[in-house]
Amino acid sequence: MKLILQQEVEGLGAPGDIVEVKDGYGRNYLVPRGLALGWTRGAEKQIQSIKRARDARAIQGKEHASEVKNQLEQLSVTLGVKAGETGRLFGSVTPADIAGAIKSAGGPLVEKRAISIASPIKTTGKHQVSVQLHPEVAATVRLEVAAG
């Protein structure tokens, strides 16, 4: 089955790539989750728009990744969450929450998939998270989780 990827699928490809997969994998997993769409000549025209969007979000090269790393490491990110009196959170902090906090703190747009949390953040206080900007460049972001 020939498909056009709409999102990055680990081990398969990036958005805009045309891939050949087994029928069951495409029909039962990729298409229902919105990760891919069936390949047609009409759908092939969408590839350019998918690739343009991917390139706009992507960090351009190692030098650009180093610049973004410097911006992120100088940034002070505060995230307001619901917490109990003891400082324990109702739930945990997700990579999407962190990406939103970085953006609202004036930082660059960061993909939530690039953010890795060493252990689940379930308490208020200061934490560190890693952001993989480029295969060779990773930034460490200081995150203050506050009840709010």
From TrEMBL:
Record key words, sorted: Ribonucleoprotein, Ribosomal protein, RNA-binding, rRNA-binding
Entry-linked PROSITE patterns: RIBOSOMAL_L9
Keyword RNA-binding: yes
Entry-linked InterPro entries: Ribosomal_bL9, Ribosomal_bL9/RNase_H1_N, Ribosomal_bL9_bac/chp, Ribosomal_bL9_C, Ribosomal_bL9_C_sf, Ribosomal_bL9_N, Ribosomal_bL9_N_sf
Record carries keyword Ribosomal protein: yes
Gene Ontology cellular-component annotations: ribosome
Domain Ribosomal protein L9: 13-40
HAMAP family: Ribosomal_bL9
Role played: Binds to the 23S rRNA.
Similarity remark: Belongs to the bacterial ribosomal protein bL9 family.
Protein name per Swiss-Prot or TrEMBL: Large ribosomal subunit protein bL9
High-level lineage: Bacteria, Bacillati, Actinomycetota, Actinomycetes, Propionibacteriales
